[in-house]
Specification:
With 204 residues, this protein is an alpha+beta fold. The chain contains four helices and eleven strands. It has a single domain, classed as Immunoglobulin-like, CATH 2.60.40.
Length: 204
């Protein structure tokens, strides 16, 4: 783990409740923006074949962890990223946390499809994030729980959250196919929805 400096209180900042808030905000944004999120999901990266079926990333959301403090500088209203802004750019004016951990959240929605004839056991930890072409590969900070095996012929999706360096855009995802001998599969990131504000303020 790269984020060793995170305290236990900080580590639990993005809980299941936070994911529920993200989903609620996404639903509201969809109604207001003409099904923007649904359109983004359907036009996402293609699925990658696995030993049991396929996986792919269907949504991505990025947000700073903390708002700038007085004297640190902040974006003017015209500079803040719109909730409807998509792309691979980092969130503008993200603040470096005082404990020197990374300053932004990246939440990825992983779709897992089981095309085999057996129940599938999988875990969020099979998805890791590589920071830059030659940088470290890190485990998730938090994830929606997996409640049991994925039945044959079914699919599911879950949100998995990572800490990323402020301003970093060279990000790739790696999925370990445990049923395929531990093969590492590279997953393309979908367009990223940059959300204004911060998780620390919006989701306490």
């Amino acid at each position: 783990m790269v984020d060793e400096g995170i305290t236990s209180e900080d580590r639990t900042g993005l809980t299941r409740r936070v994911f529920g808030v993200l989903v609620g905000v996404a639903v509201a944004g969809t109604a207001a923006a003409g099904s923007l999120l649904a359109a983004g999901s359907s036009a996402g990266p293609p699925a990658v074949k696995t030993s049991f079926g396929s996986v792919r990333l269907i949504e991505a959301e990025r947000q700073m962890r903390f708002l700038p403090q007085p004297g640190q500088g902040s974006a003017s209203p015209g500079e803040l990223p719109s909730p409807a802004h998509r792309g691979h750019d980092a969130v503008s004016n993200a603040v470096q946390p005082p404990n020197s951990t990374w300053g932004e959240h990246l939440a990825l929605r992983l779709e897992v499809r089981n095309d085999s004839d057996q129940p599938l056991l999988f875990a969020p930890g099979q998805l890791r994030l590589q920071i830059g072409a030659d940088g470290p590969t890190v485990t998730n900070r938090d994830a929606e729980p997996v409640t049991g095996p994925l039945l044959a012929g079914t699919a599911t999706s879950l949100w998995i959250s990572f800490l990323v360096p402020s301003g970093e855009t060279g990000l790739t995802a790696d999925f370990t196919d445990s049923g395929g001998g531990g093969t590492h599969l590279t997953l393309e990131l979908p367009s990223v929805l940059n959300r204004p504000g911060s998780l620390a303020v919006d989701h306490v």
